[in-house]
Amino acid sequence: MVRRRTILRNGSTIAGSLALPGFASASSDTAASRPDDFLETNGTSFSIGRRSHYLSGTNNFWLADVWTTRDEVDAALDQAAALGLNTVRTWAFCAGREGHCFQPTKGEYNEAAFEHLDYVIEAAAKRGIRLILPLANNWGAYGGMEKYVEWSDTAEEHDDFYTDPEARQLYRDFVKKVVTRTNSISGIQYTEDPTVAMWELGNEPRAQQKGVDVLGDWIKEISGYIKDLDPNHLVSTGMEGFYNSDGDDWLRDGSQGTAYVDHHRIDTIDACSFHLYPDHWGVTPEYGTEWIEDHVRDARQRVGKPAYLGEFGIQVDRDASDAEQIARRNEIYDTWYDRLDDLDADGGVVWQLTLKKRAQYDDGFYVFPDDDRTTRRIERFANRMDAKSGRPLHADQKRRRTRHD
């Protein structure tokens, strides 16, 4: 059998040397940056090739969106790479939408959508960026779990997604279709490509109707199923990190049907996922700092696995063009990034760095390239995580860091 690293190196040479559709010619430095070792865990830390690794990244769901062009993919990933980010989280799901959605109708798959994801993976690989890929959505956007419920003859409500045999099988079929796919550009099976950092079972799964035990059973089943299909990659929940305890607020009292500690203790879950949105949750940014502290501590001391902040954001009123709001956001991001660093957390992935042409869709959480005061915070964190991972800064990164500091 040919070793996968041989395949990957050959694949990067092919992708880097041929003028593939949509690809700009890559320099030898870019081609050489393709990931060739899988993200792993070492106790309560991430590692790559036996060296500690910290995630610095951004979300960008637009990358895998059905209407995003390849040029836009390249521009967005160039933007992330220019800031020194090593991780991008983007959707690997779409159900019931028109266009080249992954699964536009029940049980039917659209090859064009999968070829677009192939391109996203290859474009990330060329830049040395790894991807976190959620496989379903708790929310209605891009179909969501309720689309599987709608397609089932026996399911009726959202949480039937976790228990209804037909809905579960439809989801398992889709998971297998994605996880075991062979990339049409590189010829590398997804299971053999270290560009995929981690699979997430879903984006922010909750079981508010059926409760913690039902969600726990589903997490155990599906994470085990993915591990059977793909023993090379890490698997996490993609959850927001709500507790099931005696807390005196809805984030901690179990009402969301999630249990941060118990659900991440499941053997086939490799890392602890949590998110942070004070503006949406009705709490203060100071509570957000406490949220970070609690989740990193509990991941280390009670679960024994790495913890990464998979989404976080402070909302800005773009219509008001209020410099004070942006200054407030930046101050909060500085505090959170510093706390992640001080606690030696395993990663922070902001929501979300994206292209200026998406401004019309901005909900106040978007970070654009010309938001220099915010992007420099993101870049500083990336530089710090690279230093902790033992990777020297590239010359252009050193120049940017000097300029920003």
UniProtKB/TrEMBL annotation:
The keyword Hydrolase applies. GO terms for molecular function: mannan endo-1,4-beta-mannosidase activity. Residues 382-405 are annotated as: Disordered. Its main location: secreted. Its EC number is 3.2.1.78. It catalyses: Random hydrolysis of (1->4)-beta-D-mannosidic linkages in mannans, galactomannans and glucomannans. Signal peptide: none annotated. Keywords: Glycosidase, Hydrolase, Secreted, Signal. GO terms for biological process: polysaccharide catabolic process. It is found in: Secreted. One of its GO terms (cellular component) is extracellular region. Residues 37-346 form the Glycoside hydrolase family domain. It is an enzyme of class 3 (hydrolase). Pfam families: GH5_mannosidase (PF26410). SUPFAM superfamilies: (Trans)glycosidases (SSF51445). Residues 382-396 have a biased composition (Basic and acidic residues). InterPro entries: GH, Glyco_hydro_5, MAN-like. Transmembrane segments: none annotated. This is mannan endo-1,4-beta-mannosidase.
